[in-house]
Design goal:
By secondary structure, this protein is an all-alpha fold. The chain is built from 8 helices and no strands. It has 2 domains: 37 residues, no CATH class; 154 residues, no CATH class.
C-alpha cells in the first residue's frame, strides 16, 4: 500500500468507516473499511475545501467601495476568463465563464499543491486529468447539442454540406469524414489528459530527485520551474477547453 499522507490518514481515521458504511448499500465494498481514501482522492478533497474557503471569503467580503485583496484576485480571474472567452468564442461567452473559471482554479491549485511539503499534486495522477478532460468533453458537446439539437449537431461531424454537390457525393464525403471527426474528438480526451498528467508528474519527479540529491539552494530553481509549469499547463488546459467550446457552438450555428 502506498504511504499515506498525513491528510489522507486524517480522513481515513475519522471518515473511512462512515463512508464505507454509506456506500455498502450501493454495492460498493472496500477490502479494508479503514482505508477508503487514497492520496489522490484526499488531495482532491483538500483542493475542493481550499476553493470553498476562498470563495466563501470572497462572498463575505464583497465591497464596491473598499474591495480587499481576495476580491481583487477573484475579479482578476473573472476578467481574464471573460476576456479570453470573448476573444475565442465571441459574444455571449459569459455563460461559460463559471465553468472555465472553476476548471482553471481547480487545476491550478491542484498543480501547485505539490509544492507544499507534505502534500502531492492530484494532477500528477492520470485519473484526475482524465476526469477534467471527460468533464470538458461532455460540457462542450452538451452546449453544442443545446444550441441546435442533436440531429443538426451530429450532422456537422460530416463536414460542411455543399448543396451544389451531387447528393451521392455529399453522402460519400460525409460517411468518410464522420468516423474521422469522431476519432478526432475522442483524441482530445487523450491529449488533454496526457499533456497535463505528464507535465505535472515529470515536474514532481524532477523536483523530488533534486531535493534528494542536493537538498540546498539548487532545488529552489526547480521549484520556480515547477511553478511556471503549473501555471502554463493550467492556462493551456483552459484555453483548449475554450477553443473546443467555440468550435462546438460555432459549428452548431
Amino acid at each position: 500500500m502506498h504511504e499515506q499522507l498525513w491528510f489522507t490518514a486524517l480522513l481515513n481515521k475519522f471518515l473511512a468507516a462512515p463512508v464505507a458504511a454509506a456506500l455498502a448499500p450501493l454495492g460498493i465494498h472496500f477490502s479494508d473499511p479503514h482505508f477508503v481514501f487514497n492520496n489522490v482522492v484526499a488531495m482532491e478533497i483538500l483542493v475542493a475545501l481550499l476553493l470553498l474557503i476562498f470563495f466563501v471569503l470572497v462572498r463575505m467580503r464583497l465591497s464596491v467601495e473598499n474591495p480587499g485583496g481576495v476580491q481583487h484576485i477573484a475579479e482578476m480571474l473573472e476578467e481574464f476568463i471573460n476576456n479570453q472567452s470573448r476573444d475565442v468564442i465571441g459574444p455571449h461567452s459569459e455563460q461559460f465563464t463559471s465553468f472555465l473559471a472553476t476548471l482553471g482554479v481547480f487545476i491550478l491549485v491542484s498543480n501547485l499543491l505539490g509544492l507544499v511539503p507534505g502534500f502531492e499534486s492530484p494532477t500528477a495522477a492520470p485519473v484526475v486529468p482524465l476526469g477534467c478532460a471527460l468533464l470538458t468533453f461532455v460540457y462542450y458537446h452538451f452546449h453544442g447539442i443545446r444550441e441546435v439539437g442533436i440531429v443538426k449537431y451530429v450532422a456537422h461531424f460530416m463536414g460542411p454540406q455543399d448543396l451544389t454537390m451531387p447528393l451521392a457525393l455529399r453522402i460519400g464525403v460525409g460517411a468518410m469524414l464522420f468516423p474521422i471527426e469522431i476519432f478526432s474528438h475522442l483524441a482530445r480526451i487523450m491529449s488533454l489528459t496526457i499533456r497535463l498528467y505528464a507535465n505535472m508528474f515529470a515536474g514532481d519527479m524532477v523536483t523530488l530527485a533534486f531535493f534528494s540529491l542536493i537538498p540546498l539552494l539548487v532545488p529552489v530553481a526547480f521549484l520556480f520551474l515547477h511553478l511556471g509549469v503549473a501555471m502554463i499547463q493550467t492556462y493551456i488546459f483552459v484555453l483548449l477547453a475554450t477553443a473546443y467550446l467555440s468550435g462546438a457552438v460555432a459549428e452548431a450555428h
